[in-house]
Amino acid sequence: MFDGKHVVITGGSSGAGKALAAALLERGARVTLIARNADKLAAARQELAGAADAGRIDIESCDVADAEAVERSFGEIAARVGPADVLVNSAGILSEGPFESLPLERYRAIMDINFFGVLHCSRAVLPQLEAQGGGRIVHIASMAGLMGVYGYAAYCAAKHALVGLAETMRIELAPRGIRVHLVCPPEFESPMVDELETYRSAENRALVTTLGVMPIEPVVRETLRGIERNRFMIVTGRNARAAARLARIFPETSRSFMDRALSRARR
Ligand SMILES: NC(=O)c1ccc[n+]([C@@H]2O[C@H](COP(=O)([O-])OP(=O)(O)OC[C@H]3O[C@@H](n4cnc5c(N)ncnc54)[C@H](OP(=O)(O)O)[C@@H]3O)[C@@H](O)[C@H]2O)c1
Prior knowledge:
This protein has ten helices and seven strands. It is α/β, with parallel strands linked by helices and 267 residues long. It has one domain: Rossmann fold, CATH 3.40.50. Helix 2 links the parallel strand 2 and strand 3.
């Protein structure tokens, strides 16, 4: 499915984006990594080139929150590498803290990157996918897009917004030959979580880690398997799948589980 395809990956210099790039290179894809920090991008390219043909890896420094810069970058990528067949929206940021004290600028930054960044990139890639007669857009959302999480007011709001966007894009783009995938992982090992660990609240840790912290490899494996099976919603990890099902079918039971986990953490 990915052999010879051009996959553009936002957030491709780190964490899930970089790990997906490695797995896609193994499957014969060409990848373009997008992120802001040019040094981190160059380091990621060098690391990935250790296991794959460096000629199949391109990098582009761009802030996905900047709509004009995104338009420009996608044009430049198409001119340099060719049109995209697949877009993976993995770029994201996270802050934990009580909803009333998390600074408003942080709410805006999280919305700008985790929601509007995805929107900008999806709109910029659309003409390229359509010109090729179809393609795929993969959104890396989160379990925090499916339920409330202590300390994640801004992050949950942005990921819930992304879930709504993805549901709508799926309906609108299917007749045009473009498949949309919504990936909702629980917490997994990554630089984002390493940073979170330096300041996160006990309540947040207790709640989030109830589902377990996944190594990144199964997240990538299950994501690619879900895409290959044309699944829209891809929840990675058995515990997360059970929690997502419980939240959908028995939302009150799911909330009382969370309340109990929280009161245990406070004891
Ligand atoms: N880690 C988890 O436990 C977890 C769980 C569920 C969902 N997720 C989601 O999975 C995705 C990847 O997370 P991760 O843990 O792999 O994160 P990560 O290791 O921190 O990587 C984030 C990537 O996004 C890029 N990025 C951030 N802001 C950007 C911007 N404005 N423009 C362009 N690129 C930007 C970063 O590079 P620069 O800083 O250089 O721009 C980096 O490449 C995120 O959407 C996250 O919300 C993560």
